[in-house]
Amino acid sequence: MSRGKKANELGRVSRRTDDIDNTERWYWQEKKVPEYVKFMKQNYPPDFKYEDFGPQFTARFFNASQWADLLQASGAKYMVLTTKHHEGFTLWGSKYSWNWNAVDEGPKRDLVKELEVAIKNRTDLHFGLYYSLFEWFNPLFLEDKLSSFHKQQFPVSKMLPELYWLVNNYQPEVLWADGDGGAPDSYWNSTGFLAWLYNESPVRDTVVTNDRWAAGSICKHGGYYTCNDRYNPGHTLPHKWENCMTIDKVSWGYRRNAGICDYFTIEELVKQLVETVSCGGNLLMNIGPTQDGTISPIFEERLRQMGTWLSVNGEAIYGTHTWRSSNDTITSDVWYTSKPTENLVYALFLKWPTSGLLFLGQPKATWGSTKVKLLGHGQPLNWTSLEQTGIVVKLPQLTTSQLPCKWGWALALTHVI
């Protein structure tokens, strides 16, 4: 895998949760929000502190092999595990995290190592790790902040040692930084660490990084851009980018009080994927595990549905490039990808026309060479040219049960310009 991420990759990210209704991981930061205060008063003792959630995060049913098998079934090509978020709790143990980690508290297990072994032994996914640079209430970081980041106690004693530990011990192929804390790259020594990562580290020939390494670096520097959460520009960008979004429409964690309408449908997720890849991006689709280490059925269903869709239409996603036009000018919800070396253009359409005729305004046929095929359907399709530009494809007459998939389809167009 090159340092610039390929356009063929679909990813999954899982984030740890504290399992508080509607508060997710932000409770400690936003504990003065009235609805959070009310919930805590109704459900926890008066002297209950955030750190008391540590023992309740048990991961007792966490099974790395089951996670790996599910991620493989989803059709993902890489995954990213949140190893530490802004409150500082790590999913591995080391001398740099004192006892605020999953080995000394709660699960009493190195969850990062378990998942690394399972992913690398059971799947063909690229193993990735998310790491928050700063920590909301770490006294060393707060003291550094008061000095306008002239002091560097926190990165020297905590952040950098942990990052070196993660890379040396788990050898991720994707390193997803986040949480710059408003500090410049000189405070974090981002350039120094990245120079080591790309030139001396054990993953120097395979690792890929994002753009969140310091204040002002997002959407400007990095192997690929994230720009902001749920980023979807709707047009092709000149630099590789990623749409990091959530299946839960509002939360990055697990919510016990979430309703079915709070989750994206598989049709909506397929649309996100198609739009993202056609514009040159990757889709990193977040799931929020529970405090006992399980993936809830709604998330499992969405992952397996995506895998089912990709088993038919993956040819139009994996290994593809952008085309001269990302979407169609005549028919809405038609998006294009391409494989230039094979003279292939893919038209991914999200609505099956009731007339049975799909009007495509962008492809121009080359007489005698152009062929059209519906992925998952064996027979070539008939087509005719439009007067000015484009083609009209006659889709096969199929019953619902005969359709190659349910939530979007792809045409392979050979020798169009």
Automatic annotation (TrEMBL):
Domain of life (superkingdom)? Eukaryota
> What residues does the Glycoside hydrolase family 29 N-terminal domain cover?
23-315
**What GO molecular-function term can you cite, just one?**
alpha-L-fucosidase activity
Segments forming domain Alpha-L-fucosidase C-terminal: 327-414
Pfam families assigned: Alpha_L_fucos, Fucosidase_C
Q: What's in the keyword line of the UniProt record?
A: Glycoprotein, Glycosidase, Hydrolase, Signal
Q: Which residues are tagged with the site May be important for catalysis?
A: C244
- Example GO BP: fucose metabolic process
UniProt EC number: 3.2.1.51
SUPFAM superfamilies associated with the record: (Trans)glycosidases
This protein's GO cellular component annotations are: lysosome
> What chemistry does it catalyse, as a reaction equation?
a neolactoside IV(2)-alpha-Fuc-nLc4Cer(d18:1(4E)) + H2O = a neolactoside nLc4Cer(d18:1(4E)) + L-fucose; a neolactoside IV(2)-alpha-Fuc-nLc4Cer(d18:0) + H2O = a neolactoside nLc4Cer(d18:0) + L-fucose; an alpha-L-fucoside + H2O = L-fucose + an alcohol
Q: Does the keyword Glycoprotein apply?
A: yes
**Functional summary from the UniProt entry:** Alpha-L-fucosidase is responsible for hydrolyzing the alpha-1,6-linked fucose joined to the reducing-end N-acetylglucosamine of the carbohydrate moieties of glycoproteins.
| Assembly description | Homotetramer.
Q: What is this protein called?
A: Alpha-L-fucosidase
Instruction: Tell me what organism the protein belongs to.
Output: Orycteropus afer afer
Gene for this chain: FUCA2
